[in-house]
Amino acid sequence: MPVSNINAEDLRKANSVHPIAAIQNEYSLLHREDEHSVLPASRDLSISYVAYSPMARGILSEKFDINSTEETDWRRLPGANASTGLFFPAHLPGTL
Description:
alpha/beta; 3-stranded parallel sheet
């Protein structure tokens, strides 16, 4: 059984009820939180880890342009990322 967007504690609980085959969480150079708990838990439990959005939803690509996103795009909201306002145009040059 696969799961996604899960923390280490819930992964361990779920695996105790039914064997988990794989986990899929967001993981990139900008989203590395799983390194501290989820990746070690998946390794301990022999559960495959599949990263989604390894290019940080496009920001790590040469093609990302914040101006091409809708005004209501969640990436424009303060706190949308662990680094508050990461995708705001004013902060973008410092991010890259």
